[in-house]
Inverse folding.
């Protein structure tokens, strides 16, 4: 037995303002309290074998987030689910637990795409927005400014092939973008790039703090589903 | 939820996207209190005048939060000082300061209660009130604003805050604070609804000081001529609230678990309150008497429950002097066994460094020997006797020698400078100790002990109220600087020795408030108006603002800092009766000047006056 498990949870409300690292710390604490016997890496500075399928940016809500972890002994998934209840801060709801299929090395490596819902405060009409989006997608290149890891400089990158699907509608005062974007180690498109490039293209000047993002789902290669 | 509330919350949401560590402002942590507001009769905001990470490491908050929320009709929420970026946005977009739990503006609370941990947090209190839209001066707050109350060690000299605070609660808060809030609820039910009327009721309770019921009258030389009562039934002095024992007093085993990593993210159990050693500079050693212990079994039980509930991987004990617990050795052995089994690291602060301590440290730091910290406080035996620090030359060297033999490589020594009667010979003593320790290391580890480091850290002595040194003069900033230079020059010649010291200005400001009177409120107000807050943080410390405040308020710094008081002067904090008699403090001051020591009262009562009020459980226990 590999004793590898996946927990599905949501991160909504104010808790979306906790960082990836702080959330990881909270899970570590909860695993410890649940007495599941988290497995540790070997070596001089052992760390628990756990990690998110994909980190969620600070400020984003998440509907179906996933964390994988390994224990030093087998458990029933129902037992894990029960043991983990009531051990996380408000806004983190743990909804399911699965065994990680033995052929999957790690979730992080299997991530393929992610679905986002983005709310942008704007007075544009739905029709206008749909027109804008159509033209935006018809560009030969969709350029977005991205800060490069090595040089720390902002450089334009073409994200056209990373946007798999995007739709727009209007709900109240908000434009609602539904986007399916590349996500994972192969190709990764941050919604920030779509937001910035689309808003620039459509001449929407809504400040970033009036825009909400929620990750709806993470999809994996090989039809892996949680 | 009404529209107004929704609006504030939406506004908060838009601010949080633009600040660093927004997790500081969101609440919702595990074990934070969620209550049905319909059953609440009094709402209390526990206000910590510093950032979330600092406040959440403070055990007193966890204790009082737990004590208040045990009551079904009271809701205690928390509020911390926002960092600079958040404050700027709140001011620009007119978002008021809110509680973490329900995001309710402080104006809607019945009480806003500040904890006074250090003088340099005072400006932050004013700033927080202002951010909440609450007038900072008590006088300007009408009936519709919350009662602003305060407690904690600095309430033992409450006068600098007297203009801003409606009521101080001095002493142990576990029972006194819920009692006060319940009294408020009763008053409301009995139609005693004005603040004035409630305060008149409240001041009957031990530990309650209501500044508006008193007025100091000043003599021409600026000293206090008389303390007048403006309300006949108000007590003078106000007796500190004292718990006769803490064994049966509830201690939180489900502390709020901070979302943003706090300075100390660990389980803490208070083992005892008070100290019998009688170091003459130490305010905590005077104002928390007598020593009241939790039993070994109770401590074990609390530690186990807390670790289980929190999933913390570190446990620490809290007291003024860890080794002085009467069952310390047995307790430590049990804790070591338990924490080893549970994979929890144990930290034992302020250990008396003796043979047992080394055995213990050796066992709990098997792999990683962190630094060893030792506080001789003064450089010569004479000066250590003046301050009644019961440590001899032999103690110091024996301890350090043992530490070096056991493999500690990093040693940190703490000293104070500017202590009463200090001369340059005492500074030479500090250098001498550093030199000798270096030689000891050479002797033990040979010339190739490259990793050895010795840090000499000196802080500037600030005389505190309710201590034998409360009458003594503080050094001027120039004197401090000269002494720093003197030490720096000599210590830099010693290879492997580094030297740290504190900012002189901060020590002066701290000293003004530590022994300040009501007139210092003006200074505080001007400092706040000049933009001072979070003064304990170098990045926020606003020297220019303070300079302006001193000029504008016309406060004579030297009157408060470098002036030697006479024993018969009426002191601003005479209004508070800590339980220690003034006669005892005078006797101790005189003995200090004669470099005479006073024994630890476990060897026999030294007559501080405490046992006239409550039983001292430790009195004379070594003598019997």
């Amino acid at each position: 037995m590999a004793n590898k498990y996946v927990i599905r949870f949501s991160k909504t409300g104010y808790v979306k303002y906790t960082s990836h690292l702080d959330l990881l710390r909270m899970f570590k604490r909860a695993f410890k309290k649940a007495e599941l016997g988290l497995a540790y890496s070997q070596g001089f500075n052992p760390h628990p074998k756990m990690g998110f399928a994909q980190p969620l940016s600070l400020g984003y809500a998440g509907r179906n987030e996933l964390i994988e972890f390994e224990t030093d002994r087998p458990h029933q998934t129902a037992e894990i689910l029960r043991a983990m209840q009531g051990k996380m801060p408000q806004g983190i709801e743990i909804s399911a637990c699965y065994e990680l299929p033995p052929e999957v090395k790690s979730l992080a490596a299997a991530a393929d795409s992610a679905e986002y819902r983005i709310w942008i405060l704007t007075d544009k009409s739905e029709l206008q927005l749909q027109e804008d989006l159509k033209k935006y997608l018809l560009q030969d290149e969709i350029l977005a400014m991205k800060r490069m890891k090595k040089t720390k400089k902002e450089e334009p990158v073409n994200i056209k092939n990373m946007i798999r699907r995007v739709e727009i509608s209007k709900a109240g005062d908000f434009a609602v973008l539904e986007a399916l974007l590349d996500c994972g180690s192969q190709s990764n498109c941050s919604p920030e790039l779509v937001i910035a490039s689309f808003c620039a293209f459509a001449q929407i000047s809504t400040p970033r703090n009036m825009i909400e993002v929620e990750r709806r789902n993470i999809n994996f290669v090989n039809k892996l589903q949680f | 939820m009404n529209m107004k509330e929704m609006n504030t919350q939406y506004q908060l949401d838009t601010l949080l996207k633009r600040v660093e560590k927004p997790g500081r402002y969101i609440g919702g942590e595990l074990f934070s209190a969620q209550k049905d507001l319909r059953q609440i009769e009094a709402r209390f905001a526990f206000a910590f005048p510093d950032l979330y990470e600092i406040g959440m490491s403070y055990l007193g908050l966890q204790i009082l939060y737990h004590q208040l929320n045990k009551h079904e009709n009271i809701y205690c929420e928390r509020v911390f000082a926002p960092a600079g970026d958040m404050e700027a946005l709140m001011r620009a977009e007119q978002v008021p300061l809110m509680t973490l739990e329900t995001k309710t503006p402080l104006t809607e609370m019945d009480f806003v209660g500040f904890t006074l941990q250090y003088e340099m947090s005072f400006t932050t209190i004013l700033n927080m009130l202002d951010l909440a839209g609450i007038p900072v001066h008590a006088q300007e707050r009408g009936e519709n604003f919350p009662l602003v109350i305060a407690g904690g060690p600095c309430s033992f000299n409450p006068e600098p805050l007297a203009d801003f605070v409606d009521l101080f609660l001095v002493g142990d808060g576990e029972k006194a604070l819920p009692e006060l809030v319940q009294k408020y609820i009763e008053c409301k039910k009995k139609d005693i609804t004005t603040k004035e009327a409630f305060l008149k009721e409240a001041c009957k309770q031990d530990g309650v000081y209501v500044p508006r019921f008193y007025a100091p009258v000043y003599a021409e030389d600026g000293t206090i001529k008389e303390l007048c009562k403006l309300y006949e039934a108000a007590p003078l002095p106000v007796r500190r609230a004292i718990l006769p024992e803490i064994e049966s007093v509830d201690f939180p085993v489900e502390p709020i678990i901070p979302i943003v990593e706090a300075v100390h993210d660990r389980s803490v159990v208070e083992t005892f309150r008070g100290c019998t050693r009688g170091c003459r500079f130490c305010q905590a050693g005077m104002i928390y008497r007598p020593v009241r212990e939790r039993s070994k079994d109770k401590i074990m039980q609390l530690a186990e429950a807390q670790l289980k509930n929190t999933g913390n991987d570190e446990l620490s004990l809290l007291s003024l002097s860890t080794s002085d617990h009467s069952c310390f050795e047995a307790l430590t052995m049990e804790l070591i066994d338990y924490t080893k089994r549970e994979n929890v690291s144990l930290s034992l602060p302020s250990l008396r460094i003796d043979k047992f301590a080394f055995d213990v440290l050796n066992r709990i730091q098997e792999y990683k020997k962190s630094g060893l910290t030792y506080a001789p406080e003064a450089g010569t035996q004479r000066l250590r006797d003046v301050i009644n620090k019961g440590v001899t030359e032999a103690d110091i060297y024996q301890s350090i020698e043992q530490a070096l033999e056991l493999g500690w490589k990093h040693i940190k020594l703490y000293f104070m400078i500017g202590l009463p009667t200090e001369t340059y010979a005492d500074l030479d003593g500090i250098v001498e100790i550093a030199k000798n320790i270096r030689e000891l290391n050479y002797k033990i580890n040979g010339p190739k002990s490259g990793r050895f480091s010795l840090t000499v850290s000196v802080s500037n002595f600030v005389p505190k109220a309710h201590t034998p040194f409360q009458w003594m003069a503080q050094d001027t900033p120039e004197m401090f600087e000269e002494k720093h230079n003197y030490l720096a020059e000599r210590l830099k010649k010693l290879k492997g020795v580094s030297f740290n010291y504190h900012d002189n200005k901060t020590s002066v400001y701290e000293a003004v408030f530590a022994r300040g009177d009501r007139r210092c409120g003006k200074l505080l107000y001007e400092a706040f108006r000049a933009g001072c807050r979070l003064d304990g943080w170098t990045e926020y410390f606003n020297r220019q603002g303070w300079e302006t405040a001193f000029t504008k308020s016309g406060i004579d710094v030297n009157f408060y800092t470098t002036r030697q008081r006479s024993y018969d002067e009426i002191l601003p904090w005479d209004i508070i009766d800590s339980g220690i008699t003034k006669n005892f403090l005078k006797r101790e001051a005189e003995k200090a000047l004669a470099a005479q020591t006073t024994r630890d009262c476990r060897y026999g009562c030294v007559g501080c006056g405490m046992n006239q009020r409550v039983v001292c459980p430790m009195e004379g226990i070594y003598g019997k």
